[in-house]
Automatic annotation (TrEMBL):
Organism taxonomic ancestry: Eukaryota, Metazoa, Chordata, Craniata, Vertebrata
Example GO BP: heme export
InterPro entries recorded: FLVCR1-2_SLC49-like, MFS, MFS_dom, MFS_trans_sf
GO cellular component term of the entry, any: plasma membrane
Annotated ranges, domain Major facilitator superfamily (MFS) profile: 93-498
Pfam families: MFS_1
Chain segments annotated as transmembrane: 91-109, 121-147, 154-173, 185-205, 217-238, 258-278, 314-333, 353-373, 385-401, 407-427, 447-467, 473-493
Membrane topology: Multi-pass membrane protein
Protein keywords: Cell membrane, Endoplasmic reticulum, Membrane, Mitochondrion, Receptor, Transmembrane, Transmembrane helix, Transport
Protein name: Choline/ethanolamine transporter FLVCR2
Molecular function terms, GO-annotated: choline transmembrane transporter activity; heme binding; heme transmembrane transporter activity
Subcellular location per the Swiss-Prot or TrEMBL entry: Cell membrane; Endoplasmic reticulum membrane; Mitochondrion membrane
Composition-biased stretches (Polar residues): 521-533
Gene it is expressed from: FLVCR2
């Protein structure tokens, strides 16, 4: 925007920081910016990053009146998109999200980890208990688009509040199902929690992009996914400890009530923390890519056109399929693990839970390592392919050792498999954002999760029937076949890293910690050399 009024130099008596071209002929505007009076710069367009005003200096009015002078856009209620800073609040936001995601994931697996005990308490079949897990997958499919629309229309805070509130409500509804004939009530509570999950699964990559800098996004996404995996791990470990296998229905109801009260209290506390901590977005964009994303976003953007563009992206379509195969296999294994372990090791409900814990804990370690590696190397395609191949190798070894009669061997092989299988999940999210930038992170993540839920339902039902009729090894071989297909398709994905290309447009851009207590005056991201001042 051309600034021709010298009175705009000050506002309320305070010099206003400006990115103005000086009269010095040695400084010129970036070629993408026109200095003509009739042309005003879009907020996303700024002068070359090597040219900026020193914060302590003020230009003479006669200089500011030059035709070539450019002033920073200053629109009340909007962010200055030329300032790239990261907020200290970002760690609190991702931590709170990770915690209520953990709570929701615990409620997903709390029935499956002791499926034989709940079958005995409610007097229902194994398939009915499996559906308490699969309802999480089923509800996600039709609700993805409405929730993705809400994420774009109302933002992160509204979606976070809705998800944590539903998670809390579902936890308390389950307390009304402490009698053997009240199985429908526990189904209702689980369905409410499954709806809450729709407001959670698509958030990690969105939170990472909105709140974290270019060199932190993969690590932040891993931390956000970390909470979900930790919840599954606790869901494998705690229920077998809190709810012993007994035929005394009153004693069983008492122990189940303890588990339900604990999770209800935790869910309530986390809902309160979401109200206090969660903000819509930071004051300034944390990266060049996010700044451009804000500038390019349109409130009238069509969801249908966005989906069409995503499905025209062949690399993304391949990733949707391969991610679904891997995550679907993980969902099936998690749901059926108790049944498989009890099949070979009767009475080992606690150890079955510990094996599940080992799978997820090792997977969280793998996710953190891969996230840090991606932030340093940016080798998305290579890392994803290697992790996928090692997932297949781990699954084959686990399949061959499950029936050896030695639990310690199962712990080792299951942990190795989990390191890569669970560690792959955040890789898929971040790779999808790279392949689809600047499309909505919520939409790309949502489509990955829809694929995972569809394959999860298919694999859980199919593997469960195979285990019932033919045993555990044929069931696991069934998963190995599809993981082989997924590894082969991953090799055909081309590494078109669009977000990285956007960030490289300003390679020398430094992230600055944002002090919330400072005044609203902000400094331009780079400074002009001393001789030009």
């Amino acid at each position: 925007m051309v600034n021709e009024d010298s009175n705009l130099e000050k506002r309320d008596g305070t010099p206003e920081p400006q990115s103005a071209l000086r009269a010095d002929p040695s400084i010129s505007a970036h070629p993408s910016v026109s200095a003509h009076q009739s042309v005003s710069a879009h907020p996303s367009v700024s002068i070359h990053p090597s040219v900026s005003a020193h914060p302590s200096s003020s230009a003479h009015p006669s200089i500011l009146a030059q035709q070539g002078g450019l002033a920073q856009p200053s629109i009340p209620g909007t962010e200055d998109l030329s300032v790239i800073k990261v907020s200290k609040r970002r760690w609190a936001v991702v931590l709170v999200f990770s915690c209520y995601s953990m709570c929701n994931a615990f409620q997903w697996i709390q029935y499956g980890s002791i499926s034989n005990i709940f079958m005995n308490f409610y007097g229902v079949s194994a398939f009915a208990i499996d559906w308490l897990s699969m309802c999480y997958m089923l509800t996600y499919i039709p609700l993805l688009l409405p929730v993705a629309w809400m994420l774009e229309k109302f933002g992160l805070r509204t979606v976070a509040l809705t998800g944590s509130a539903l998670n809390c409500l579902g936890a308390w509804v389950k307390l009304g199902s402490l009698k053997p004939h009240l199985f429908p009530v526990t189904v209702l509570g689980q369905v409410i929690c499954s709806v809450a999950q729709v407001f959670i699964l698509g958030m990690p990559s969105r939170i990472a992009s909105v709140w974290f800098g270019a060199n932190e996004v993969s690590t932040a996404c891993s931390i956000a996914v970390f909470g979900n995996q930790l919840g599954i791990a606790i869901g494998f470990l705690v229920p077998p400890v809190l709810v012993p296998n007994t035929n005394d229905q009153d004693k069983l109801a008492y122990h189940i009530s303890i588990m339900f009260y604990i999770i209800g209290g935790v869910a309530t506390l986390l809902f309160i923390l979401v109200i206090i901590v969660f903000k819509e977005k930071p004051k300034h964009p944390p990266s060049r890519a996010q700044s451009l994303s804000y500038a390019l976003s349109s409130p009238d953007a069509s969801y249908l056109s966005s989906i069409i563009r995503l499905f025209k992206n062949l690399n993304f379509v391949l990733l949707v399929i391969t991610y679904g195969l891997n995550a679907g296999a993980f969902y099936a294994l998690s749901t059926l693990l108790n049944r498989m372990v009890i099949f070979h090791y009767p009475g080992e409900e606690v150890n079955a839970g510990r094996i599940g814990l080992t799978i997820v804990i090792s997977g969280m370690l793998g996710a953190m390592i891969s996230g840090i590696w991606l932030d340093r190397s940016k080798t998305y395609k290579e890392t994803t392919l290697v992790v996928y191949i090692m997932t297949l190798v781990g699954m084959v070894v686990y399949t061959l050792t499950l029936n050896l009669g030695r639990l310690w061997v199962v712990f080792i092989t299951a942990g190795t498999m989990g390191f890569f299988m669970t560690g792959y999940l955040p890789l898929g999210f971040e790779f999808a954002v790279e392949l689809t930038y600047p499309e909505s992170e919520g939409m790309s993540s949502g489509l990955l999760n829809v694929s995972a839920q569809v394959f999860g339902i298919i694999f859980t039902i199919s593997q469960g029937q195979i285990i019932n009729n033919y045993g555990t090894m044929p069931g696991n071989i069934f998963l190995c076949v599809f993981l082989t297909l997924g590894a082969a398709l991953t090799a055909f994905i081309r590494a078109d890293l669009r977000r990285q290309k956007a960030n490289k447009e300003t390679p020398d851009n430094k992230l600055q910690e944002e002090e919330e207590e400072e005044s609203n005056t902000s400094k331009a991201p780079t400074t002009v050399s001393e001789e030009h001042l």
